[in-house]
């Protein structure tokens, strides 16, 4: 099956779970510091962290920033309809279920082998209203009824790259169709210098949504290193001040760009269409070492 790792929890040694899935070699690595927490890696790249005892705990920086968007999409605790494009270990679906009970969620994760592994080793709360479908993200989105979702989250990576067909104006047309008025689209974008992909994605979103905000590490925004940026978009004003406050108070503080500063950041990049779309750049090997 592959290599194995272990972590000591008290007197017990908990073994890693290593299994080949459709997208590569999946590893579930036990967290040394949290009794029932695990990190999911695919081909050595960290994908998700889940704490089964505390699903509201978000360890990864980018997931914490997506958590801020989730927290602010509706009044605290109010149930929402959410669509997750890309499932990983279902971290964010678990977070919504924990912080917004009675929410109804659809997760679209193409890798059926990964879904099976996660369901077996990191079981969902049976009371959570989470439906998981193993189809392509854009095909799954097309099945969402018009105006159903309060929130659509895109966090899709294949070989550590976002597939090209999830980067275009036509893809965002499908997102807008699925959203309620005032609903929010949030995307996990990864890029490094010279940030051509990130700038193009902002320009693409601006072509379809009047309100945008970007949360990222200042070093990433300055093009000094490869990293993640969270783009939030809506047809209604976003809670930029509160997003800014929350991002600034994170363990690794993030900066929020919006308005004219975000427009200037694109540097004249053009919207991306299906005809011209390419996958996001591959991260350098040093990112995961």
UniProtKB/TrEMBL annotation:
Q: What is this protein called?
A: Fused MFS/spermidine synthase
Q: Which domain of life is it from?
A: Bacteria
User: What biological-process GO terms show up in the record?
Assistant: polyamine biosynthetic process
Q: What is the lineage of its organism?
A: Bacteria, Bacillati, Actinomycetota, Actinomycetes, Kitasatosporales
Query: What SUPFAM superfamilies does UniProt report for this protein, alphabetically?
Result: S-adenosyl-L-methionine-dependent methyltransferases (SSF53335)
Protein keywords: Polyamine biosynthesis
């Amino acid at each position: 099956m592959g290599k194995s790792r272990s972590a000591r929890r008290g007197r017990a040694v908990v073994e890693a779970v290593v299994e080949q899935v459709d997208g590569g070699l999946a590893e579930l690595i036990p967290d040394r510091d949290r009794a029932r927490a695990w990190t999911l890696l695919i081909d050595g790249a960290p994908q998700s962290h889940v704490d089964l005892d505390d699903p509201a705990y978000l360890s990864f920086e980018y997931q914490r920033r997506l958590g801020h968007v989730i927290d602010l999409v509706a009044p605290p605790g109010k149930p929402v309809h959410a669509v997750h494009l890309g499932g990983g270990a279902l971290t964010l679906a678990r977070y919504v279920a924990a912080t917004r009970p009675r929410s109804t969620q659809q997760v679209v994760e193409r890798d059926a082998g990964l879904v099976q592994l996660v369901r077996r080793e990191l079981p969902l709360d049976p009371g959570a209203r989470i439906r998981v479908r193993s189809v392509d993200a854009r095909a799954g989105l097309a099945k969402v009824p018009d105006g159903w979702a309060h929130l659509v989250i895109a966090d899709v990576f294949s070989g550590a790259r976002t597939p090209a067909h999830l980067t275009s104006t036509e893809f965002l047309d499908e997102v807008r169709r699925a959203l309620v008025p005032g609903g929010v689209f949030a995307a996990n974008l990864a890029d490094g210098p010279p940030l051509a992909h990130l700038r193009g994605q902002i320009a693409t979103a601006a072509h379809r949504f009047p309100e945008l905000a970007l949360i990222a590490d200042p070093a990433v925004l300055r093009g000094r290193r490869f990293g993640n940026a969270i783009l939030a978009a809506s047809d209604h004003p976003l809670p930029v001040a509160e997003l800014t406050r929350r991002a600034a108070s994170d363990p690794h503080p993030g900066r929020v760009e919006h308005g004219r500063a975000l427009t200037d950041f694109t540097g004249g990049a053009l919207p991306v269409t299906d005809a011209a779309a390419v996958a996001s750049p591959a991260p350098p090997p040093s990112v995961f070492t």
